[in-house]
Prior knowledge:
Blueprint: E1 3-4, E2 7-8, E3 16-20, E4 23-24, E5 30-32, E6 38-46, E7 51-61, E8 66-68, H1 75-87, E9 102-110, E10 113-117, E11 121-124, E12 136-146, E13 152-159, H2 163-170, H3 172-175, H4 178-189, E14 190-193, H5 202-205, H6 209-224, E15 227-233, E16 240-246, E17 252-253, E18 264-273, E19 279-285, H7 290-295, H8 297-302, H9 304-315, E20 316-319, H10 324-337, H11 340-353, E21 356-357, E22 360-364, E23 371-375
Helix pairs in contact: 2-4, 4-6, 9-10
Amino acid sequence: MPKVGDFWESYRTGEFVLTIDGTESPGVTKVSGLSEGEIDTIEQPDGGSAHVYKIAATKIKYDTLTIERYVDGSPEDKRFKDWFQQTFSLNSPTQGNSGVRKNGMIVKKHNGVPVLSGSDKEIYMSTLSTPAGKRELELTLPVGYSDENGQVHRTVVLRKMTGKEEAILADRRNQRNGGRLVTELLHSCIVRMSDLPQNGTSTVAGMYSADRNYLLIKLRSITFGSELQAGYSCPTCSERLQVVEDLDELPVRSLADGESPDDIVIELEDGYTDRDGQVHTALTMRLPTGADEEAVASQMRQNASLGKNALLARCMKSLGDVPKHRLEAIGPRILADLTMSDRRLIDRALNQSAPGIDLTREIECPNCGHVFKTTLDMTHFLVLE
């Protein structure tokens, strides 16, 4: 390493060190392109509460990582070449790309002594790691799937996600339709459902949203672990809170054996006034399914409020004396005409009556002490931290 008098020639000396998975490189001059990747989000409606959650699909795109070293003719040049070739498997069939997920750290040295280091950054991820334990988990659905003969199936065996599911998450076609993505993901990871034959995605699409969301939470838990990094903002003081949520501790309301999901009956305060001036206040709704989620996905992407209207309209069974054919034709328009107080009644009824996993969180702000309710932050739901 060149030395002039009593000081090191910093311009020509590699005073940066790149450590990958604990192995330190010879000195490098520059490292650029480190990033956490671009994350696409998917809008997934929660049928039980009519909330729309933004879920990070996966880290799908990274900037090119550039490592530079000033070649000065010293033995360190060959050592750097050997380290780089071994670390990034340049002689392997997948030349130019690491075959496993790696973590790296940049260390700045001065006269050979570390003076500054960056935190671990994910550099490559071509395979997803999973925690040790069982690959499969048997679960009981909160509601259950009713087949064409009326038999209810509630036992599901779910397996961990693999590279196959990573491809499903990264598929742009699925990312444009949150409902379809959940259908494809669950269909791929469900080993069996009671004694039903595996005959395509129609069964998963026909499941209640409450069951799908329950399975999605469990799938994330068994694949990546139950801990989820979440962030919330206090509505009083705007303090940003970072919380580690335990997905296995989320409360679940399940139907009793032999119990069927009831229709949700809501008495509206203001109601809907039809073109003849008649007011209709008695609203009956059913629980939404995966097919409903898929059908309204495009509207949900364009406008969350209009998408919510479309979802709820598909679940309306009756509204006063409004003819069924008219209810089906102008359902979203009817919901758009309802007052905010009536829409809140619908949300409250769905939250209180619908079975499934409860994603409502009660948070106490450590800064001002205000206690507020919010929905589970799912920004990093399908992102491996």
